[in-house]
Amino acid sequence: MTEKQLAVHCQHIGKTYQAGGQKIVALNDIKLEIALGELMMLVGPSGCGKTTLISVIAGILDQDEGSCALFGEDLQQMRSKDKLNFRARNIGFVFQAYNLLPSLTAVENVSVPLIINGVKRAVAERKAGEILELVGLGTRTKSLPAQLSGGQQQRVAIARALVHSPRLIVCDEPTSALDHETGQTVMGLLKDVALHADRALVIVTHDARIFNFADRIAKMDDGHITSVGAVNGLLG
User: Fold this and answer.
1) Which residue ranges form the domains of the chain, and what is each CATH number?
2) Which residue in 17, 22, 183, 231 has its CB near the most CB atoms, within 10 A?
């Protein structure tokens, strides 16, 4: 696999934290490649470094050691403004807690990434309405988050992550609060809508019910990636 075919190329990533006078190693010599067109899942016990790793990949955290390139660009080498612009254009993030703005309607929440990227509000809301229709919420565009179920809020969060056509979609436990049927529906939407030959999707999850949606699974433990492979080979 050549680097030109990669969405993500992490080499020797290390990340430590200081807590109570102790050094905690969150990531240790992480090597990971995620190809364009691929759905990669990160699995492992709580506290093993999964969320820290996706935060480094998405440019939310800087690593202490190693390098992580997105589409051939090293975010840590960018100036802060350039990094923010790169992330705004190229990354969509689905947060575990949804992070919807409570005073904004569904269509307004989904419009936010487009407005950040300079799209006029009317155009942004029209595009947001189209993608809400795509995820099955065309009749709830004017609803506030509090008026939506957990599954509907998650669909709004997914629509917001996809509306600006990012090349990398990062999801933190997208089905953790959903029942089985809704979780399967959400994953089907993510795989169908998010994955194209020029995009990639990386998902942190504990939910074994959705492992079959992955192209590959990276198992983590104690800040290490212990194995990477097809779901049947690793977890079957």
Assistant:
1) 3-96+167-235 (3.40.50.300)
2) 183
